[in-house]
Amino acid sequence: DRRLLQTLRDKPAISGDGVEVRLQANIELPEDAAVATANGAAGIGLYRTEFLYMNRKGLPTEEEQYQAYSRVVSAVRGPITIRTLDLGADKQVDSGQRQGPTPNNPALGLRAIRLCLKEPELFRVQMRALLRASAHGQVRIMLPMISSLSELRQAKALMATCRAELIREGRVVADRIPVGAMIEVPAAAISSSLLAREVDFFSIGTNDLIQYTLAIDRVDDEVNYLYDPLHPAVLRLIHMTIEAGHKAGIEVSMCGEMAGDACYTRLLLGLGLTDFSMHPANVLEVKRAVREAQVGELRRRVADIMQAASLDDFASLLAAL
Ligand code: PEP
Ligand code: MG
């Protein structure tokens, strides 16, 4: 089967009825970029930069980050979506790098964009490195855990300040760097039509979106039986986000695990998603599902399912999709 899948590597990700789909890869280390390309990914949809900060002493300097980002950017043809630091909760750095009180509830605490806005110096070092790396390819910057317009605006203001600083120093920065928000907090999904006016793209982070929507800790084994990507509340938030993004004319991608599970490909295509980012190992399987799908028909069927009155209908109709 693996060999059969390999024959799809250089074939386009296009559905049976001609809808073009973009399948990108999620990476965690610069060296993963080569694996993504080898698996036929059309670019990097999520580069999780926190791995540069983890399992080490001290924080990475601007120069070190600039080298790492430039390496990825130069190695990949096509756009690279680099996510700003998503530390906290399930992604911790060695103690000693950062001090602060231990939160009672880390997933609801100071993590990701919240931490970066609270500690602007931490954010500034990364932002300068990212902007400098933009000189070497198609960098897109993605902000994790956005829950309000205010966070988005603060992050963009900081980015503008860093850009002005770098230009003054005579550094090269790309003219236009698309900025996107991860939609992974229910508040962001619910207000996606407002956020869509101020970003260039959305990327749905289902790992956290499911955690926060269903109030189940994604790293707590006692409750993982409740972790359900098909819960109607989750699907409604995903649907809402895709519609709001498309209505505003921006791209909507999905980079949570759900995007890389071929069991959900038909459903997601039916919900209107055409942009997926996943672990490189899943690209070919998802590509096969895309190539076998009739997207027009799936959209009609999923629209009916989304209208289903009872939650039971919802589950059984999805099972038959
Ligand atoms: C997500 O939450 O779905 C996501 C892609 O981000 P992470 O898994 O790194 O939190
Ligand atoms: Mg997340």
UniProtKB/TrEMBL annotation:
Keywords: Cytoplasm, Kinase, Magnesium, Metal-binding, Phosphotransferase system, Pyruvate, Sugar transport, Transferase, Transport. GO terms for molecular function: kinase activity; metal ion binding; phosphoenolpyruvate-protein phosphotransferase activity. GO terms for biological process: phosphoenolpyruvate-dependent sugar phosphotransferase system. Its cofactor is Mg(2+). It catalyses: L-histidyl-[protein] + phosphoenolpyruvate = N(pros)-phospho-L-histidyl-[protein] + pyruvate. The active site is at C255 (proton donor). Its EC number is 2.7.3.9. It is found in: Cytoplasm. Phosphoenolpyruvate binds at R48, R83, N207, D208, R218. Mg(2+) binds at E184, D208. GO terms for cellular component: cytoplasm. Residues 5-294 form the PEP-utilising enzyme C-terminal domain. It comes from the Bacteria. General (non sugar-specific) component of the phosphoenolpyruvate-dependent sugar phosphotransferase system (sugar PTS). This major carbohydrate active-transport system catalyzes the phosphorylation of incoming sugar substrates concomitantly with their translocation across the cell membrane. Enzyme I transfers the phosphoryl group from phosphoenolpyruvate (PEP) to the phosphoryl carrier protein (HPr). Belongs to the PEP-utilizing enzyme family. This is Phosphoenolpyruvate-protein phosphotransferase. It comes from Panacagrimonas perspica.
